[in-house]
Hints:
The protein is α+β, with helices and mostly antiparallel strands. It has helices at about 20-25, 70-75, 75-90, 165-185, 190-195; strands at about 10-15, 35-40, 60-65, 100, 105-110, 110-120, 125-135, 205-210, 215-220, 230, 235-240, 245.
Amino acid sequence: MTQWPAGVDRIVLDSVSSTMTEAARVAASITSPTWIMAHHQTDGRGRRGRAWLTPEGNLTATLVFKPQCSPAEAAQRSFLAANALYNALAIYVPSEKLSLKWPNDVLLNGGKVAGILLESAGHRDEVSYLSIGIGVNLKTVPDGLKDAAFAPTSLKAAGGWDVDAVDFLTTLANAYADQEALLATYGFARIRTDWLKRAAKLGEVITARTTTAEITGIFDTINEDGNLVLITQRGPQIIPAADVYF
Length: 246
């Protein structure tokens, strides 16, 4: 059986409003990186305040820690989390079925199987804590979702192994610890390279919808800050935040 990573704490709760809310509550008191998992949450959320539904058997967890870095460096952890999720899921389903969708989703056979949400607190020069919220559809697909562009799927529905959420969390925690070790040794360039190898639609035409515009172009790369770079008729466009469609 896979061992829990050394130097990392874990809290498993039966029910909570949101693991992200719980992470914010305990952030000041933690002394080690801490994973908070809940079997049930009543008020889960995703990016831009969207609801995140968690049927029984799926994973809802948040990693909260004090990275001692700038807000920009903290934001790069989204790509560490995506790489870790890819590596963890690839243990239970063939890796060729998986891809990473900028900025923070994991696709399985083209459907959304996992999402990532980052929240932090601090000041301009250094964050006081960072929370990385992760939801994975292990066993079932949430009902009532209206985002048909990337219909949700689950590991089990795609023919993957039937894995318990607590066991998957152990796999994920180890995979994320490996990503932090890579970051410490090689810097974000290595994380970025690994992410791009798994990127969905790299080199193809995609559309990025920001709060003010819709930009269509060829997905060229992500830059050193993790921003999306599209090649458009007006030249390269650097996009720091958007929803992507293809």
